[in-house]
Amino acid sequence: MASKDDKNLTQVIDKIAKMNEPERSLVQRVHEVILAAAPALKPRIWYGMPAYALSASTPALLTLRSDERVNLALTEKVALVPAGASDAMLMPAAWYFDTLDDSTEKRIAEIVTSAVS
């Protein structure tokens, strides 16, 4: 019998598989980057989108959404910190992108690592 984590992972993979290209490949790669950066995260569907939490029973920390652009977002469960400088008290919590390169993958990994620490 499959575990809850296995069922959740299957749902996320199925959700990604139903996306149109080129978003499907982009979201699939970001999914891989997230799990490589924080292998302890548990993927699941949260409000209809792929999300990542510390366990099947805890709130999601990160979400992936594909509308007109792909979006990686931190949820309110992450300890957000004001950006400072010209952004003053605004807290960076969402990033949109159309393509991935090595620098973007590295930055996504950094965001994920900081979200779980």
List the helices and strands and how they pair.
Layout: H1 4-17, H2 23-37, E1 42-46, E2 49-53, E3 60-66, E4 70-74, E5 94-97, H3 102-116
Antiparallel strand pairs: 1-2, 2-3, 3-4, 4-5
Helix pairs in contact: 2-3
What descriptors fit this protein?
single chain; 117 residues; alpha+beta; Aspartate Aminotransferase, domain 1; globular
Structure commentary:
The protein has one domain (4-116): Aspartate Aminotransferase, domain 1 (Alpha-Beta Complex), CATH 3.90.1150. It has three helices and five strands. It has helices at residues 4-17, 23-37, 102-116, and strands at residues 42-46, 49-53, 60-66, 70-74, 94-97. It is globular, with a radius of gyration of 14 Å. The mean pLDDT is 90.
